[in-house]
Amino acid sequence: MTIKLVSNAKQWARTIKRDVHAVWLSARDPCTPWFAKALAVVVAAYAVSPIDLIPDFIPVLGYVDDIIIVPLGIMLVVRLIPPEVISEHRETAAKATERPVSRMAAGVFITLWIVCAALLSAIYL
């Protein structure tokens, strides 16, 4: 039972990883509508960012974005992208061995945390 559960979880994680890459590629495709491109860039950048909105060291809540928010964002973006475009990029992503890395998204989240810390210290000091 637990072996099957672990196997299913690994397969789900591989599918999410592939779809993040496919969404990233779809954001650059001229056949993708502009609103889907904008959301795709945000979702893919957040998914590959090493910095989370909710840090993983916070018990339970730290993994909410990894388990719920990212997959829901991917599902929404996939629905907005034309089926032929997403299927083409899913095939490409499945063949790829490396996932895209977003240093810009990491910078945005680091800046966000610094601004929040500065605001909190200004309020409470």
Automatic annotation (TrEMBL):
InterPro entries, alphabetized: DUF1232
Annotated membrane topology: Multi-pass membrane protein
Pfam family, one: DUF1232
Bilayer-crossing regions: 101-124
Location of the DUF1232 domain: 36-72
Localization in the cell: Endomembrane system
Keyword line: Membrane, Transmembrane, Transmembrane helix
A single GO cellular-component term on record: endomembrane system
Protein name: DUF1232 domain-containing protein
Source organism per UniProt: Vreelandella sulfidaeris
